[in-house]
Amino acid sequence: MTSRYLRDLAVLSVRDPGQAAHEIRGLELPSQAIWTALLLAAVLKTATYILFTSAISAAIPEAAALAEMLKTAPVFALIAEFLVLLAFSWTLYMAGTFLGGSASLHQVLTVTVWITLLWVLAIAVSIAVMLVFPLLALIFLFAALLIRIWVMVHFVDTVHGLGSLSRSFLLLMASAVLTQVLVSFLLTFLFAPFMGAS
């Protein structure tokens, strides 16, 4: 898997996400590589979020508190992000299987890692643009968010083989909601003892 292949796959993911999903679904990556990539994706996403919130805190004062929290508790942010990616993959796999999807958890994890890495790239580009044109950076990031949702819907539809973009969109939204509930519970369970909760 060369850098040129990854670049072409990134372009294909935006131009023809269904075909890109077929490519990713066909990858036979070892389980250890997938879990390592998932952790790396969580690290990169946490790091870019810290940089991004720090960069926009000058223009948007409301972001300063979030930036400070992320900088003072990066390990907590990393654990939370890893749990989000893991829970999202699991709920997407389980809910998709319930709806008749054919994807394996391994394939869903691979898709999650790839989508996350593309999002990290978008955030990194927006940070670079923000140094020169702050407003343009926010517009770019909003456009990237819409493209991300569009790509994810196609990826979910192709990987699970649902044959319906509307069902894939609803599956994606349901998985996102379930992920928030599950991660909130897990974080409370894991960190409540350290915060003096009974």
Distance between the termini: 49 Å
Q: Indicate the overall shape.
A: globular
Oligomeric state of the chains present here: single chain
Number of separate domains: 1
Please write the string of helix (H) and strand (E) elements: HHHHHHHH
Number of helices: 8
Helix content: over 70%
Count of β-strands: 0
Low-confidence stretches: none
Supply Rg.
17 Å
Classification by helices and strands: mainly alpha
Mean pLDDT: 84
Strand count, sense and barrel status of the largest sheet are: none
Beta-strand content estimate: under 5%
Provide an overview of this structure.
This protein is mainly alpha-helical and 198 residues long. It has one domain (30-191). The chain is 83% helix and 0% strand. It has 8 helices and no strands. The chain has helices spanning 3-15, 17-25, 31-56, 62-72, 74-98, 105-130, 134-160, 165-191. α1 packs across α2 and α3 (31-56) packs across α5. It is globular and about 45 Å long. The N and C termini lie far apart (49 Å). The relative contact order is 0.13. The mean pLDDT is 84.
